[in-house]
Write a structure and sequence with these properties.
Helices cover 39% and strands 17% of the residues. It has helices at 32-44, 81-96, 107-123, 129-139, 181-189, 196-203, 209-229, 240-245; strands at 7-12, 16-21, 24-29, 52-56, 59-63, 68-69, 149-151, 160-163, 166-170, 177-179.
């Protein structure tokens, strides 16, 4: 039938699903509160976000943003270093903005989850115990007190869209809250560590790169079981298990050795 847009399943699991029909994205969520938070966080964020087209109980319709994703896991990024720096500058604007009222997990909650997730990885033979222990030791550096800021909370490179060297939109705000600035920077560069220097150049200020590395380990340790149980493969190239295996190979480039928040 001519002129009829296909329905594309972007993501689907037992908690939520996202469909695309033409230039409209439909987010269906079992938790209405999560959709309400997402809309409010987008309203507060000082960066480009998708236009809300309409809302119904447990369904949110959003307009597609212009441009292409900054990067995709397992694929080299086609975005320029300047675009990555622009993403870093956008993250800085977000982190400097007045915070939303919602508080994300703190160090104590992450530490409690870490016990369970590390045990699961070893018990199920996902990774050798010594590698899990090495990453757990690395991750503990992220479990320090931090000054909360306005965070996206799930800032994958695939959630940042650029056209040329400009950020045109940031999507998927359901985890927006008060949280650790360095978690956002770590999530953005998790699958693209070669662009960490570009992101930090745009972000500015003093940043403790070793805490970003710690978040790479912490985030990967905490995410692996959820990904497996929801039908995703954390062992795909560039994904969480690759990140965990690389823990012993990290070095500190002079241009990204920065201390601070």
């Amino acid at each position: 039938m001519g002129g009829v847009d296909k329905v594309q399943v972007v993501i689907a699991h037992e908690e939520r699903a996202t469909l695309r029909v033409g230039d409209t994205f439909l987010k269906v969520d079992g938790d209405q509160g999560r959709l309400d938070v997402e809309v409010e966080v987008m309203r507060l964020a000082p960066v480009p976000t998708p236009e809300v087209l309409w809302r119904r109980p447990r369904v949110l319709a959003l307009a597609a943003v212009k441009g292409k994703a900054l990067g995709r896991t397992g694929q080299p990024s086609e975005a320029s270093p300047t675009a990555w720096a622009a993403a870093g500058a956008a993250v800085r604007r977000l982190h400097d903005a007045p915070m939303p009222p919602w508080t994300g997990p703190g160090p104590e909650q992450y530490a409690a989850e870490l016990d369970h997730e590390c045990g699961w990885l070893v018990t199920n033979g996902i990774l050798p115990a010594d590698l899990v222990d090495q990453n757990r030791r690395a991750a503990e550096k992220a479990l320090r007190p931090w000054t909360p800021v306005f965070v996206h909370g799930d800032l994958h490179a695939s959630h940042v869209f650029v056209a040329g060297d400009e950020v045109t939109g940031v999507i998927d705000w359901s985890e927006g809250a008060q949280g650790d600035a360095l978690r956002d920077l770590a999530s953005l560069t998790l699958a693209h560590p070669e662009h960490l220097g570009n992101v930090l150049a745009g972000y500015g200020g003093d940043v403790d790169v070793e805490v970003i590395w710690a978040w790479w380990s912490l985030r990967s340790l905490l995410a692996a079981r959820w990904l497996v149980e929801h039908g995703f493969d954390p062992d795909s190239p560039g994904c969480e298990l690759d990140v965990l295996r690389a823990v012993g190979t990290r070095s500190t480039p002079d241009l990204t050795r920065r201390r601070g928040r």
